[in-house]
Design goal:
Layout: H1 8-15, H2 35-38, H3 42-57, H4 61-73, H5 78-87, H6 90-97, H7 103-111, E1 115-117, E2 120-121, E3 134-137, H8 141-164, E4 178-181, E5 186-189, H9 204-212
Antiparallel strand pairs: 1-2, 1-3, 3-5, 4-5
């Protein structure tokens, strides 16, 4: 199954907030109050969580299945390992730093060779970042101008959210595992992400359960 390129609001209305897919919000959300729609099977719940994970991080079905298999073989809690694998992708790191407004935008920056990791160009969005990695924009006017626009938009969005409702919990928690140096167009990976800072509120165990019925994990 290929990566989704269709209407983004359609997915948000069905699955809920997906900050990695789009930075915009639909004016109205469709709310269904009929009792028939309130009775959901275990399979439909697992499927929805899997779809939310997939569309937020912009993965194909095959890519997500590969990550699930890697998480299943790793030590520790499978659900947490899966989220850590996804959060440490280079495209997601750029998004969490605010150097791109969405994960698709971050992927485009990487594909077009605007991003350096530890001083070397990396053009693979799925590149797995490690602690102490330094992510910077290429030292060219075009690269830095684009990232500056994204950084300014990110700062304005956070300020607007705080003014609108200071008590409201942020959709995207502050990434404590990252440090941004906006004047230098640089970000630093401090450590592997903790579960409290994951960019999507999701029941990752439901995703593991969904794939456990299809694969031997």
């Amino acid at each position: 199954m290929s990566r989704y390129r269709g209407p983004r609001f359609k997915k948000i209305r069905r699955l809920g907030a997906l900050p990695g897919l789009t930075s915009k919000e639909p004016r109205k959300l469709r709310i269904i109050n009929k009792p028939h729609f309130n009775r959901k099977s275990e399979y439909s719940i697992r499927l929805k969580e899997k779809q939310r994970l997939r569309f937020h991080y912009g993965l194909t079905e095959r890519q997500l299945l590969t990550y699930v298999r890697i998480a299943a073989k790793a030590k520790g809690e499978k659900g947490l390992v899966l989220l850590q694998l996804l959060e440490m992708r280079l495209d997601n790191i750029l998004f969490r730093l605010g150097m791109a407004s969405t994960i698709p935008q971050a992927r485009q920056l990487v594909n077009h060779r605007h991003i350096l990791v530890n001083g070397r160009i990396v053009d693979i969005p799925s590149y797995r970042c490690k602690p102490r990695d330094i992510i910077t924009a290429k030292d060219e006017q075009k690269s830095r101008a684009m990232i500056q626009n994204y950084l300014s938009s990110y700062a304005q969005k956070k300020d607007a959210q705080k003014k609108k409702d200071p008590q409201k919990e942020e959709i995207l928690p502050e990434p404590k595992h990252l440090t941004l140096y906006p004047l230098e167009y640089k970000g630093l990976v401090n450590q592997v992400i903790d579960s409290d800072c994951v960019g999507l509120k999701i029941n990752q165990l439901r995703v593991i359960e969904y794939y456990s019925r299809k694969t031997k994990i």
